[in-house]
Amino acid sequence: MQPDLDSESGGLVSTGHQDAKLPPTRSGVRAFSLTFWSVSLDLYRYAGETAWRSRFRILAVLAALVAVEFFVIRFGDQAVMAWIESWRTGEVARLATWLSHLGKFHLIPLGLVVGIWLWSEIRHRTDGRIALGAAVVAMVWAGIIVQLPKFIFGRPRPHFNLPDQFAWFHPEWNSFPSGHAAHWFALVGALWAFSPRLSLMVTPLAIIASLARVVALAHYPSDIIAGAAFGLFLGLFLGFSAAMINRNRNRPKGLE
């Protein structure tokens, strides 16, 4: 059984009533901080446990994804880029560049989370607090983690007009995988556990922003696939971990 918010405050509440609320004092701020870190640790713990229980399925999915990526890199990327070049005009390029800014600095996805949080508060859906917090965590980690393979693989972007290659540890070449796609689809995955309808509403924006990166010659299709798959997996794990925390916190007091 998960302890309630008051019991997590480290004994800061002296009253014996479980439903007593903390006053807005320094002890209340400290209690909020302790609760925040407790929820964060629970989020990572549940995600790790879920990943470990599903490790064989995850490995199978990863193997399938590697096979798809190899096929797309070997046979699909250059064909798709040549097809785009056949109809890409200056106006299309400018539109694609503008649309790709939907993920620029990741402000729009984060702004969507803030908007959804306000909507859930207005509708008194307190379960959205942890779930949307998980969405923010998923997007932040997606944006951070993809920087490592970008540095390792060292793939030049299409607009560099260089032969497609993996130069390995070339910091100026950072096309693979797409950080925009990882960021957007981490939001899609995390929202799915909270509200599948909201997730489906955000998905078109994620697809448009990701495809625009290809048309803008910022990424190859395989970059988008890799980034989107990674972000989606991370978002789903953290999103469903948040859902498990909500279920445990809403469980009746007498149940273990």
What does this structure look like?
The chain is mainly alpha-helical. It has a single domain (55-249), classed as Vanadium-containing Chloroperoxidase, domain 1. The protein is built from nine helices and no strands. Helix 5 packs antiparallel against helix 7 (179-194), helix 7 packs antiparallel against helix 8 and helix 7 runs parallel beside helix 9. The longest helix is centred in the N-terminal third of the chain and has 33 residues, at 55-87. The protein is globular.
CA distance, first residue to last residue: 5 Å
Structural class: mainly alpha
The backbone outline, from C-alpha atoms, is globular
State the total count of DSSP E strands. 0
Q: Give the uncertain stretches in residue-range form.
A: 1-29
Determine and state the CATH class. Mainly Alpha
Could you tell me the strand content as a percent range? under 5%
- Count, helices: 9
Order of helices and strands: HHHHHHHHH
Number of domain units: 1
Query: What's the alpha carbon Rg, rounded to whole Å?
Result: 22 Å
Largest sheet descriptor: none
Helix content: 55-70%
Mean pLDDT: 81
Output the CATH topology.
Vanadium-containing Chloroperoxidase, domain 1
Based on the coordinates given, report the CATH architecture.
Up-down Bundle
List its traits:
globular, 70% helix, disordered N terminus, mainly alpha, Vanadium-containing Chloroperoxidase, domain 1, 256 residues, 9 helices
